Amino acid sequence: MVLAIFKFDRMEWAIEKCTEIGVTRIIPVIARRSDAHLAAAAVKRHERWQRIVRQAAEQSRRSAPPEVAAPVKLKDLSGVLPTGELTRVVLAESEEDTRLGGVLQFKPGEVVLAIGPEGGWADGELSWFCEEGWIAASLGNTILRAETAAIVATALALEALQ
Question: Rounded to whole angstroms, how far apart are CA atoms 34 and 107?
Fold first, then answer.
């Protein structure tokens, strides 16, 4: 999961819950709409996020916690993604025709989801994702908070992959 950096208490909650339901990797990303002070403090939060996933993995009786990568800028994301056959989906509230469930129905294998910050991905960021081969999809007609979107998208992806 690629998770744009947003308010830390909410982000930590999303990290904890996504760990409990089964996410295997979290890559914090500094997006254009990530608050500057949060982006600056993200490097210091990395250790805390690792502790949160360890505790959440224990709580949910997972054999191993997910990896939490060091925060990266969006333009550097391609360098930290795993190689190989991946379905890469960016959640975009502007996407009207493609739903996440529909994309995952026909794309078996490993899935990487990109969840935007509060206010969503900027237009330039969505263009970048498209140029990099990501599929834009939505979670429906309602606008969800970033932490809610992360949990819902993770649950839908895990259900589709079983």
Answer: 30
CA dist 121 and 137 (Å) reads 12
Of 31, 40, 23, 39, the closest CA to residue 4 belongs to: 31
Q: Residue 105, exposed/middle/buried by CB under 10 A (0-12, 13-18, 19+)?
A: exposed
Residues ≥6 apart with Cβ < 8 Å to 120: 33, 92, 93, 94
- Other C-beta atoms closer than 10 Å to the C-beta of 54 total 16
Q: Tell how many helices (H) and how many strands (E) occur in the chain.
A: 5, 7
What global pTM score does this model have? 0.94
**Is residue 112 a contact partner of residue 81, using CB atoms and an 8 Å limit?**
yes
Alpha-carbon gap, residue 15 to 110, rounded angstroms:
19
Mean pLDDT, the chain, whole residue set: 93
- Give me 96's structure tokens: 């009207």
Domains of the chain: 2-161 (3.40.1280.10)
pLDDT digits (tens, 9 = 90+) for 64-97: 999 999 999 999 999 999 877 889 999 999 898 9
- Angle at CA of residue 61, ends 58 and 64, nearest 5°: 70
pLDDT digits (tens, 9 = 90+) for 122-151: 999 999 999 999 999 999 999 999 999 999
